[in-house]
């Protein structure tokens, strides 16, 4: 008796395989670029690329955006990230069945989350952020490839969410018609 939730069945599912492949590549790209940045920039390296972009190494020891949530920041980050990744994995197939575009953004979000999670667990200094973007004279954000994967995935989910909202509205309208006719 084979269960749909068995691991071997899920990995052979083309949607799950595509999701895992993209997530793996996003995570690998993040980890490789972080390693390259740490090796080439050293502890205090700074390379100005343009007036708005630079390579600089900053160690993020907090949550997203460098926010600290107390003495258990790392532990909470690990738990929340693993729960979120499990939730995303559980909705990939159903969302892809409704909108095939869902697989890519969900994989990017998971791959970015995995990259930052592994970096947080590997290095005692924190997560290496190295892509500096000057927004204003006084404001610069420093991110990494995982962050860009997460942001891109979130942006690409917008049209998928709109499709889901439209389908729910259509289903509710259809149900209202059926109940009013009966």
From TrEMBL:
The keyword Nuclease does not apply. The chain crosses the membrane at residues 78-96, 103-122, 148-168. One of its GO terms (biological process) is proteolysis. Keywords: Aspartyl protease, Cell membrane, Hydrolase, Membrane, Protease, Transmembrane, Transmembrane helix. GO terms for molecular function: aspartic-type endopeptidase activity. Signal peptide: none annotated. InterPro entries: Peptidase_A8 (IPR001872). It holds the Pfam family Peptidase_A8. GO terms for cellular component: membrane. Belongs to the peptidase A8 family. PANTHER family: LIPOPROTEIN SIGNAL PEPTIDASE. This is Uncharacterized protein. It comes from Gemmatimonas aurantiaca.
